[in-house]
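Appendix B, record 7
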Amino acid sequence: MQTLWQDLRYGAGVFIKQPALALLAALALALSLGAAQSVAQSPSRLLPDGYVKAKGAATDSATGLPKRVLHRASGVTLVLIPAGEFSMGSPTGEAERMDGEDQHRRIIHQPFYLGETEVTVAQFRRFVAATKYKTDAEAGTPLDAHRVGSFAALPHGDRTWSLLANWRNPFPNLPEYRRRDEHPVVHVSWNDAQRFCAHFGFQLPTEAKWEYAARAGSQTSYFWGDRAQDGADFANVNDEQARRRFKDTGQTLPFDDGAALVTNVRRYRPNAWGLYDMVGNVLEWVEDAYVHCYPGDGADESAATGDNKAGRVLRGGSWLDSRTYLRSAVRVTMEEAARRDFIGFRIVKRLEP
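Structure tokens (predicted):
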């Protein structure tokens, strides 16, 4: 007992003659160590450099991390997505199911942060200001014989190549359009998205992570249910507003979401995990090369790889899509240099185990 008292006394940095005082010193020492451990595990210490807790964000009890964070340099707000597993793809009986959607179990081993919204015009401008980067639409690529420009909407609803179309001028053929900082950036290729991510230390989400986050625990055709017409409050899609604006708009949904083109992020209700526009507004590039068959091992959450001819995958539907292309399982593929007035992207930040 005497040895213990001596250890406690010297451990506390004070020589104490009385046993009772020694016990008090031990208690003080334990409290101080607990406080130090609490500081060491505070959210600000756990976050990667350059990130701060978003205003009003709660703390996740499982990880000690904030549920929402702000990346200062880019201005992007991200949402913490928990680890877990889910059924990826669609069941054979799902209406309007397409090839390449084979349902299988996938495991997401580590939590990660995903952009709360699609990358906006203002956020992309920060990147361009810092790097002087020229997008594929501004510089041209071998894919389009080095022509500048992109495919952009015409007044009647079809689209054609425009030498003037790029992220700074999304709809050169529609004089009524006014670009806003809170609009998602468009006319960006997979290459452009990768350069944005590399500059800020982000990544594009894998297909598995994107669909896991989009579903947010749901297993229905759409994250809000099995009926497309119930998505009026959740997404900017091809609906009555678009039908009135474009005579060649095709199939529309029977509601009015208030927008005929791209519109502000956060305008509609988020999914159950607090993510906005996981369906609609713009199609979103993901990391994966397109492969017809998903990997057999559901424990593999890495991106699929392929040669340049495979194309890259886009997810989530856009302002001009209806029903089929809004389902959680649907997959679209285009070349890495492709760009359109309905294509943007969302970013992910991986966390160390």
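Remarks on this record: The radius of gyration is 25 Å. Confidence is low (pLDDT under 50) at residues 1-19, 29-40.
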